[in-house]
Automatic annotation (TrEMBL):
PANTHER family: HYDROXYMETHYLPYRIMIDINE_PHOSPHOMETHYLPYRIMIDINE KINASE THI20-RELATED, PHOSPHOMETHYLPYRIMIDINE KINASE. It catalyses: 4-methyl-5-(2-phosphooxyethyl)-thiazole + 4-amino-2-methyl-5-(diphosphooxymethyl)pyrimidine + H(+) = thiamine phosphate + diphosphate; 2-(2-carboxy-4-methylthiazol-5-yl)ethyl phosphate + 4-amino-2-methyl-5-(diphosphooxymethyl)pyrimidine + 2 H(+) = thiamine phosphate + CO2 + diphosphate; 2-[(2R,5Z)-2-carboxy-4-methylthiazol-5(2H)-ylidene]ethyl phosphate + 4-amino-2-methyl-5-(diphosphooxymethyl)pyrimidine + 2 H(+) = thiamine phosphate + CO2 + diphosphate; 4-amino-5-hydroxymethyl-2-methylpyrimidine + ATP = 4-amino-2-methyl-5-(phosphooxymethyl)pyrimidine + ADP + H(+). SUPFAM superfamilies: Ribokinase-like (SSF53613), Thiamin phosphate synthase (SSF51391). The lineage of its organism: Eukaryota, Viridiplantae, Streptophyta, Embryophyta, Tracheophyta. Keywords: ATP-binding, Chloroplast, Kinase, Magnesium, Metal-binding, Multifunctional enzyme, Nucleotide-binding, Plastid, Thiamine biosynthesis, Transferase, Transit peptide. It comes from the Eukaryota. This is Uncharacterized protein. Pfam families: Phos_pyr_kin (PF08543), TMP-TENI (PF02581).
Length: 564
């Protein structure tokens, strides 16, 4: 790889014959650039007077357009002509996560599914100019880096980031392409170790990159990955994610996350697919996107991992290119869009306040349809609904779900389905609730994608911990009191509920024998992540669902009980 400035410039200008002119030609809205273009020397560095003029004119244009900001990630990376990785993957990942993405290109690669045929490094001055251009004008929340092909590029990046601090810096320490071609030489390591990593909020090496960062120590197990995460953390980044997708002999893909205090092993089933080119860039961009939206680091990492798993799973059959490793589809969610795709936002834990769970036996007893029961519950103030129709025929269940979905959506209330992922997918419900012996949460997540709500029943702290690792959104914890609604259900009491809440990083809803007479006692255990109560008989085995829902909602809304 070229290292001296003259080599870098030569490589740059060799590329495509006339590299600078198109950049300037593009700028029709900036007439002063035409004069730059007319000059015989294309390097703006050599036109100090013009640069002053450009700066002056640009300054007058730097008026904030509006306060209505969209989360913004700036990616500093290389272009992949094949569109699977690099800048192209970053743009797609940010778009899929609904975050604005600006780009600073550090290199242009000729690349396809077979491998990398050529690399042209952008001179560090022009990388600096791109950085300055974006960061002096736009409000960037998070910077994400990918291919940083020269030490000088690492240096100018660090220098400019010190001038324009951002909320977070995500570093994907790209060293080789997935085809094995070298994208950053060993000299870059110095820049990583001395300057970039100490400024970094999260670094996301795969096994090979982690090994290189540590001086080529072999990493062969999850335990080695934990040691590596700790050692890399000692180099300065505040968080480390060592990705274990390439770990040999493992059925699962285990990533190790270390925040300086605790280790987390994030597991998902290994997805057997050729189409995994660009997963590293996409993962880092998703983390950046979630951080830009305001997520905590851990939840950004988890969301990003779910997104990758779902994208790989949905893209198994994609056939692009003839090489060994193909790209995947970042917009897999568009396949599932139908016109009632209402749920655009992530799950809101406060929706768990009054969780109405239906029961076909009770509706039959009172001569009501599922839809009538659900309508009364949401009118009365239920904040989330679960259809738990154990005896319904599939076709009837599906038809009822569609009607209930319309009702719930008209009230802005999420509708979940008990146990049946097929029904969730068929009617585009908002999510599923599963128990410990139903579809595993990990699988449910990879089948449903990152946006659907997944709840899981837990009776123990261990189950609660696993639920979080597996990608659930909330925990249903019970039976708090004895119940006749679910046969042979073990009662765990308020103590059991408290233990689960304490161990859980997820929001919790209490269930089992809860009604107007004891809901206060449940909420008064005072655990901040206990967000509400889930009830069946005290709403649906009653003469007037509307009145009983209203009463329970009023009680739960008392200021003394509300934990936001
Ligand atoms: C909110 C909520 N919590 C717990 C359950 C129970 O689910 P599960 O253990 O799968 O039992 P069944 O409901 O399937 O009998 C739930 N449904 N909802
Ligand atoms: C469906 C369910 N799951 C439970 C658990 O403990 O996980 S208890 C339960 C039944 C709750 O019904 P009711 O409000 O009528 O007691
Ligand atoms: Mg179940």
């Amino acid at each position: 790889m070229a290292s001296s400035e003259s080599q870098l410039l030569r490589r740059h200008f060799d590329y495509g014959g006339a590299p600078v002119a198109p950049v300037f030609r593009r700028s029709l809205r900036f007439p002063f650039w035409n004069s730059v273009h007319a000059n015989t020397d294309p390097n703006p560095k050599n036109h100090p007077s013009l640069r002053v003029k450009i700066q002056a004119q640009a300054d007058t244009m730097m008026k904030p357009v509006s306060d209505n900001k969209i989360p913004h990630v700036l990616t500093v990376a290389g272009s992949d002509s094949g569109g699977g990785a690099g800048i192209q993957a970053d743009l797609k990942a940010c778009a899929a996560r609904r975050v604005y993405c600006s780009t600073v290109i550090t290199a242009v690669t000729a690349q396809n599914t077979v491998g990398v045929q050529g690399v042209n490094i952008v001179p560090e001055d022009f990388v600096a100019e791109q950085l300055q251009s974006v960061l002096s004008d736009m409000h960037v929340d998070v910077v994400k880096t990918g291919m940083l092909p020269s030490l000088n590029i690492v240096k100018v990046l660090c220098q400019i980031l010190r001038k324009f601090p951002v909320k977070a810096l995500v570093v994907d320490p790209v060293m080789k392409s997935s085809s094995g071609d070298v994208l950053a030489g060993s000299s870059v390591l110095t820049g990583f170790l001395e300057e970039l990593l100490p400024m970094t909020d999260i670094v996301t090496p795969n096994i090979k990159e982690a090994s290189v960062l540590l001086g080529n120590v072999p990493l062969k197990s999850v335990s080695d990955m934990r040691t590596a995460a700790k050692l890399i953390h000692d180099m300065g980044p505040r968080n480390v994610l060592v990705k274990g997708g390439d770990l040999p002999n493992s059925l699962d893909s285990v990533d190790v996350f270390f925040d300086g205090d605790e280790f987390y092993e994030l597991c998902s089933p290994r997805i057997n697919t050729r189409n995994s080119h660009g997963t590293g860039c996409t993962l880092a961009s998703c983390i950046a996107a979630e951080l830009a939206k305001g997520s905590s680091m851990l939840s950004a990492v988890k969301t990003a991992k779910h997104f990758i798993d779902a994208a790989l799973d949905y893209s198994r059959d994609l056939a692009i290119g003839n090489g060994v490793q193909g790209p995947f589809d970042h917009f897999f969610e568009l396949k599932n869009i139908n016109h009632s795709s209402w749920r655009q936002n992530m799950f809101n834990p406060n929706d768990l306040l009054l969780y109405a769970v239906t029961d076909s036996g009770m509706n039959m007893k009172w001569g009501r349809s599922i839809a009538e029961a659900v309508k009364a519950a949401v009118e009365g103030g239920a904040t989330i609904v679960q259809l738990r129709e154990k005896d319904a025929e599939t076709r009837d269940f599906l038809d009822a779900s569609k009607v209930c979905l319309e009702i719930c959506r008209s009230y802005g209330v999420p509708l979940l389905i008990n146990d049946r992922l097929d029904v969730v997918l068929a009617c585009d419900a908002d999510g599923v609730h599963v128990g410990q012996s139903d579809m595993p949460v990990r699988l449910a997540r990879s089948l449903l994608g990152p946006e659907k709500i997944i709840g899981v029943s837990c009776k123990t702290p261990e189950q609660a911990h696993q639920a979080w690792i597996d990608g659930a959104d909330y925990i249903g914890c019970g039976g708090v009191y004895p119940t006749n609604t679910k046969a042979n259900n073990r009662t765990i009491g308020l103590e059991g509920l408290k233990k689960v809440c304490e161990a859980s990083k997820l929001p919790v809803v209490a269930i089992g024998g809860i009604g107007l007479s004891n809901a206060r006692a449940v909420m008064e255990i005072g655990e901040p992540n206990l967000k509400g109560v889930a009830v069946v008989s005290s709403l649906f085995d009653r003469e007037c669902i509307l009145t009983d829902t209203r009463n329970l909602h009023a009680l739960l809304s008392e200021p003394a009980l509300l934990i936001q």
